Amino acid sequence: MFIDYLETPIGTITIKASEQxxxxxxxxxxxERKKECCANNTTEECKIQLKEYFAGKxxxxxxxxxxxxxxxxxxxxxxxxxxxFGKTVSYGDIAKMIDNPKxxxxxxxxxxxxxxxxxxxxxxxxxSNKTLTGYAGGIERKAWLLEHExxxxxx
Length: 155
Known about the structure:
The protein is α+β, with helices and mostly antiparallel strands. It is 32% helix and 16% strand. A three-stranded antiparallel β-sheet has the order 1-2-3, covered by helices on one side. A two-stranded parallel ribbon has the order 4-5. A hairpin with a 2-residue loop joins strand 1 (2-8) and strand 2 (11-17). Helix 3 crosses helix 4 (104-112). It is globular.
């Protein structure tokens, strides 16, 4: 397992990768950053692309991903990757995208377990009434990310 860290305008991000690709991109507290870095080409490229994103120079990521989850979770996460920069969808929209319109709550749970934040843009999923809903990194960060992307019709 490879690990590195990136300081962003909204906190420290931990980037983890396997030989196959990125496995985790999450915000961490300062006390969690005690682990030593052991970077590889994938974590380095991920840092470069995230820096470009935060600088407003990148809207699409091009990284190998190594997502670990159930088949349903991976299906939901694949749908998240289809949400264009600057756009939002609801949990119901994702449920329809995966051809399972009654699975709104399950979609919400899978969205909440997304281990590769920002790159797999779970922050672009909002409530059907256009309100911001939960985000593992915190609602304030979700709001910042959506504002950064200048989302049309946002809350």
